[in-house]
Amino acid sequence: xxxxxxxxxxxxxxxxxxxxxxxxxxVEVAPGDLAAVDRLADRRDLGAVGHRVVHGGPRFVDPxxxxxxxVADLEAVSDLAPLHNPPTLAAVAHLRxxxxxxxxxxxxxxxFHASMPEAATTYALPAELNERFGLRRYxxxxxxxxxxxxxxxxxxxxxxxVTAHLGSGASLAAVLDGVSVDTTMGFTPxxxxxxxxxxxxxDPGLVLWLEAHGVEGLDDVLNRRSGLLGxxxxxxxxxxxxxxxxxxxxxxxxxxxxxxxxxxxxxxxAAAMGGIDGLVFTGGAGERSHRLRADACATLGHxxxxxxxxxxPDAVIGPKxxxxxxxxxxxxxxxxxxxxxxxxx
Length: 345
Description:
Layout: E1 2-8, E2 13-19, E3 22-29, H1 34-41, E4 46-53, E5 64-65, H2 68-76, H3 85-98, E6 104-108, H4 118-121, H5 127-133, H6 142-156, E7 160-166, E8 170-176, E9 179-183, H7 204-212, H8 218-224, H9 227-232, H10 237-245, H11 249-273, E10 278-282, H12 284-288, H13 290-297, E11 315-318, E12 321-323, H14 328-340
Parallel strand pairs: 1-4, 4-6, 7-10, 10-12
Antiparallel strand pairs: 1-2, 2-3, 5-6, 7-8, 8-9, 11-12
Helix pairs in contact: 1-3, 6-14, 10-11, 11-13
């Protein structure tokens, strides 16, 4: 089956036609470029469309065919992932109108983490609030983590893997025997690591203090004006590293904060599994920046981790460390085909 994969992210729209575990055609365009969607969706050899949906809310823990009821449920939880779910749903609506003959499937970034134990998903808030609002740590980027864990296991072996998806958004997952048992993102994709424009975890008291002191637009501050952009003035890690080399104090601090949070969080993910057999880097920065990988592992020698080689994915780059190309497109296509044509894959 040929599957059109639609990955509407916060900073780009990635499209691919996938068959048999290979991408026959792939393009990356600006968010909302539905003309590109139309060009690929016009192919008559397509069997289905698979969408990356960042947040499935409390209901969706497996891929599901998109119909009116499912779309309505996803619209209801869009405020949990305001940078991601709305553009995805716009693409869904467009394709349902243009190609009503094609089955469309939602594949959720939250689904891979639905296996996490309650101790890892529960916030220490009043139980009645958790129950009333469905408050919990959902975790995200699960499609990438699932692929990286499976490919990383092939390269490194071992039962206990930490997968590191480092891109514009960034997160870690603790994967035990192929199952997610902990991750750094939480109720929304804003928790955890320092990211390109997101702050990652901050003291909730700090947010309340800012609100009490008249700072407005905190959602915009935390999600679009923080992270590397907030500290260094640029969200591009390559520019940050160039600034570090040039002695720019803002870039030196931003990179230091980024690496510190990353390294300490890798240690936390290892603790969730009682140790670590392998660390797998993926995502744009995780795949391309040898320097970032080496700096992240510089203080993790006590875990047996070291980076020695600068090579392209997919490869082992040092003791217990590998780099893997992010292939959310193949993961989405695999899940879509399994739902639309069970028994084929």
